[in-house]
Amino acid sequence: MNKKLFFSLLSLVIVFSMLMAACAPAATPTEAPAPAATEAPAPVATEAPVVTTAPAAFKACEVTDTGGIDDKSFNATAWKGVEDAQKQLGIEGKYLESQQQTDYEKNINAFIDEKCDIIITVGFLLGDATKAAAEKNPTVNFSIVDFAYDPNIPNVLGQVFSTDQAGFLAGYVAASVTKTGKIGTFGGIQIPTVTAFMDGYALGAKAYNEKHGTKVEVLGWDPIAQTGLFTGNFESTDDGRTMGQTLMDEGADIIMPVAGPVGLGTAAAAKERGNTYIIGVDADWYLTNPDYAGIILTSVLKNMDITTMAAIKSVQDGTFKGGVTVGDLSNGGVGLAPFHDLESVVSKDVVAELDAVKADIIAGKLATNPSAMPKPEATTPPAAPVVDLTKLIADAQAEGMLTTIALPHDWCNYGEAISTFSTKYNIQVNELLPDGSSGDEVEAIKANKDNKGPQAPDVIDVGFSFGPQLIQEGIVQPYKVSNWATIPDSAKDPDGMWYGDYYGAMGLEVNTDVVANPPKTYADLLNPEYKGQIALAGDPRGSNQAILAVQQLALANGGTWEDPTPGLEFFKKLNDAGNFVPVIAKQATVAKGETSIVMRWDYNALADVEALAGNPNVTFYIPEGTPPIAGVYIQAISAYAPHPNAAKLWMEFLYSDEGQLLWLKGACHPIRYNDLAQRNAIPAEIAAKLPPPEGYANAVFPTVDQLLASKTFITENWDKLVGADVK
Length: 727
Fold this sequence. Notes:
With 727 residues, this protein is an alpha/beta fold. The protein contains 24 helices and 25 strands. Strands 17, 18, 19, 20, 21, 22, 23, 24 and 25 form a 9-stranded mixed beta sheet that branches. Strands 2-1-3-4-5-13 form a 6-stranded parallel beta sheet, sandwiched between helices. Strands 7-6-10-11-12-14 form a 6-stranded mixed beta sheet, with helices on both faces. Strand 11, helix 9 and strand 12 form a beta-alpha-beta unit. It starts with a helix and ends in a 6-residue tail after the last helix. Residues 1-54 and 376-382 have low confidence and may be disordered.
C-alpha cells in the first residue's frame, strides 16, 4: 500500500535503529569518576526509594527466504505484518536475511539466542529448519509462512494460503483479456506454494474457455501433469527476463511470474516489448513496483501481513496456539488486486462474472486445483495394436531411409544396432550429430519441423526427464510397439508418446596407467593429486549424462533433487582447484590421459574398457559411500518424422529380443531386461560381461518430477555457480 512520506521515513528510522542495535557490540561497563573529597553533610532521614525495572520490549523476529526482505513479494509482505505490529502494538521488530539455504538454521538459532518472543520464518523451504528448531526449543514460539505440519507442533503456527483460489480468478481474467490467445506463467522452484498459484491460473483460464467457447492456451504449466517452466531460484532477474522473453516469443501476451524478485526481470522485458501485461503475486505489484504500474493487469494477493500480525498479537496477549491458519477467499486471506490503470481492458461483463466465480469457489462448486477436480472414471489403457510387420517393412523400405541423431557407435552398442538394422531391412541410416546431447535432439526436431530433408531426425533417444517436455511441446507422435506389454508401466507414457529403452548407473571411469591411486569416494576428487584430470562426459547445460553427474555429487554432499546446489558448489571447488577439466570426455581423451577420471554411465565406460583392451588400462567402478543414480533413457518418434514408417520399424527392431540383447551386449540394461531374464533369453556370454550386481543393489531411480527439478536447477545455475564452459 502507498505510505505517507512521514511514515516511510519513520519506518526507515525504526528499522535502521533496530539493525544498528542488533549489530552493535554490547556496551562495556566503565567505572564512574571518583568525586572530589568533601565533608559529608549531616544525614537527613528519608524513606528508601522504590527501585523499578522497565519491562523488556516484546520482540518479533523474521527470518527471510533467499529473496530478501525487500523482494517486493512474500518476504516483504510478511515483514509488513511485523511493521504493522510495531506501529499498532508497540513491539520491537527485527529480521535476518538468508543469502542461501544453509543460512536458515543459523539465522533461526541467532534469534533463539536473542530470546525473541516469536520467530517468523518465511517460506516453504524453511519448513525443515523451523521444525528442527521448534522441537529442540519447545518454549519458543514460531510462526511459519507457507507451511503447515501434520501432526501439528505445539509451538508452531503454520500460515497457509489458498492461492489457487485467487490464481483461478487471475487466470479467468487473463483469458478474457488476451489478444493472442496465449497466456503464460512460470515459477521459481517447483514447490507446492509456487505451483498452487499456477494450478489456479491454468484452471481459471480453462473455466473461461468452457464458459465462452474460447481456446486460450496456457504456456508454462500443465496442472494435470504438474510439469512446466521454472528458473530454479528466487533471486535472478536475468533469469526472469529470459523466461519472459521465451514466453513472449511463443505468443504469450499476459504473464504471471511466481518467483519473487525474479518476476521483475519479466516485467522489465514486458515493458520493453510494450505489448504484454504482467500479473503480480503475493502483493499488489501496482503499488510495490510503480515503475511497472502501466503494465500490471492485477495481482494475486496473499495477505501474509494480516496473518503475521495476528500471530504476533496472539503471543503478546497470551492466546497463541500451535496449529495452522488458512487464508482463503472467504476470510480475505487471499484475493485479487484492483485493475488500477488497466480497468478499461477488463469488460464489465467479466467483472460481474468474477463475482459469481468467486462465490462458486467459496461454495466449493469450482475446483481450483487438480486434487479437487472430479476423478475420471478408471479406464484400461488401450492395448498395443497388432502390427502388420510385413506391411510396415514394405512401407519403410519404400521410404528408403531412417534419420537418427546423437547415437555414438560406442554408446550402448549402437554401432552394431544401426548396422544390423540397415543390413536386415535394406534401409539406409542417416546419422546426425553423433556426439549431440538430449537437448540438441529436442532442438533439432523443433528447428526442422517444416523440413523433410536429411537434417530432420525421425527418432530420438533422450534422458527420462525430457519425456513431459516432448509431450507438452507436441513434438513427438504416439506409437506402441508389438512388445508394449512387456515394458514396465513406470517407464512408458500410457499413450505411447515415449518409452524407456535402457538404463545404467553413474560411476567413475579411470585411466589407471595415469592415475595410480584412483579415488575411493567422490570426496577424494578434491585431492591435489587429481589436478587437471577430472572431466564430465557432456556439457551440464544440456547433456542428461552430465546433469546427472552433477546431481550425483549433490546427493553425495547432502543435496536433494529439488536443490542440487551442493553438487554445483562441489564442481566449483574442483574448478577453482584446477582439478576439473572443462573438456567433454571421449574414449580418445581418456586413452591419451587428457581426461583421466570421468563421471559417466557404466555402459559407456565399459564400452571403453572393451575397446581399449588394456592399451591403456581403464577401469570402471562405483565409488564407496554413495548409492549410484540409475539413469533411464527413452525413445520417441518425431511428430514431423520425414520417414515415419522407417521410424516405427526402428522401434520394433529395438524393442524386439534381438534389439534388446544388442543393448545388453553394450552393457546397457534394456528396459525389457526382466522379461528376457524370466524367459532365460539372455545368453551366458553376455551376462558374464556385466558389472557385479552388488554395486547396483541400492541404485536410486529418480521420478520424473525429481529429474525435472534437477535438470532445471542445474542447467539454469551452472554458469552462475561454477562458471566453467564445458566444450
